[in-house]
Amino acid sequence: MVGLRLFAFTNTPRNLLVELKRALDGQFSGLFKPVSIHPDLLPIPEDAYDSQRRQYKAQPFLKILNAHVPPNEHGLSLVNVDLFVLKLNFIFGIAQLGGNGLVALPRLRPSFYKLPSNKTLYFRRIFIEVVHELGHVLGLGHCDNYCVMRFSNTLADTDQKPAKYCDTCLAKLLI
Ligand SMILES: [Zn+2]
Ligand SMILES: [Zn+2]
Q1: What is the pLDDT of residues 91-133, one digit of tens each?
Q2: Closest-approaching ligand to the CA atom of 133
Q3: Cα gap 171→175, rounded to integer Å
Q4: Which residues are catalytic?
Q5: How many A from CA of 169 to the centre of ligand 1?
Q6: Which of 1, 60, 70 is nearest to 39 (CA)?
Q7: pTM of this prediction?
């Protein structure tokens, strides 16, 4: 079992981390040691903003996160700004295989698409994306089964995924 630590960058509501910890502890108690929450918010990297795209580069956020994750733990951070990486218009999340991961919140919010707010749906999307990136953190690639490790191109893909690993992925996780 690996230690898992949840982080958030400045301007992310901290209660989301508490809710996330509760959901992860409930659903994945056999996979992780009890999830911990990092006591401080991480600073938004100054060099990350691209003023032409009005989005933030993901890599500087990963760099800061990597510097704060203790040895023998994996870190997953929520980021409350719109992230991108080269060649992609945006990303819902990113993770380094066997390392740490990020999930970007803005595009998971119904209000981003001018839809009425829906906290249940918003949290479900955060949970799905977090469980997906954690899969990568724990060494999983993408999966074609009915599985949280399916690749999401659009929010509709995210909404159609189950919030759990398929048996094949789970078996790999438990090795
Ligand atoms: Zn992925
Ligand atoms: Zn799978």
Answers
A1: 999 999 999 999 999 999 999 999 999 999 999 999 999 999 9
A2: 1
A3: 6
A4: 133
A5: 13
A6: 70
A7: 0.95
